[in-house]
Amino acid sequence: MARTNLCTNPSFAYGTNGWERYAPSSLRVTSDTAAWGGHDRQSPTYLVVDVPAQLQGQVATPGPVTVAAGQALAVSALVRTSPGIGLAVRVEWTVAGRSQVASAPLLLTSSAEGDRPTWVHVAPAGATQARVRFEVH
Predict the structure, then answer these.
(1) pTM of structure
(2) Cα(44)–Cα(15) distance, rounded to whole angstroms?
(3) Which of 25, 26, 70, 85 is least crowded, fewest Cβ atoms below 10 Å from its Cβ?
(4) pLDDT (tens digit, 9 = 90+) per residue, 47-99?
(5) Does residue 95 contact residue 71 with C-beta atoms inside 8 Å?
């Protein structure tokens, strides 16, 4: 199956353009050419999301993408977290002009060395857009 990257600025070559933060987190771009957890990097630049201690919930999101009902949306990211922090992906769908957050169980990843999980979500009936929300737990 052919995969198409729908994310705006996935390599962060243009800084944080196309990405939004949720307060009180902050976003910054930095670089590192070393592999993380044995996973090759697709780009030397990456996004750092700084979050205050004990924060839980959404912290960052790329812009919305157009989808059709039944379309599979796979989200894969090379992730490195601080100890005790888990990262999850939840999808916010636009259905009939209204926001609807997926209630599917969350797949958490937590790795100080680096991990590349893939989260898969399927657009519900009537969906026209999807916004991927990165959350900490």
Answers:
(1) 0.85
(2) 12
(3) 70
(4) 999 998 888 889 999 999 999 999 999 988 888 888 888 888 889 999 999 99
(5) no
- Residue 3's beta-bridge partner residues? none
Radius of gyration (C-alpha) of the chain in whole angstroms: 15
pLDDT, tens only, 6-22: 888 888 989 999 999 99
For residue 16, what are the contacts with CB-CB under 8 A and spacing of at least 6?
A: 9, 27, 28, 29, 47
Which two structure tokens, joined as six digits, stand for 72? 């599979």
Kindly report whether the peptide bond that precedes residue 24 is cis, defined as omega within 30 degrees of 0.
yes
Beta bridge partners of 96: none
Query: What DSSP letter does each residue of the chain carry, written as one string?
Result: -------SSTT-TTTTTTEEE-TT-EEEEEE--S-BTTBPPS-SEEEEEE--TT--EEEEEEPPEE--TT-EEEEE--B---TT--EEEEEEEEETTEEEE--SPP--B--SS-B--EEEEEPPTTEEEEEEEEEE-
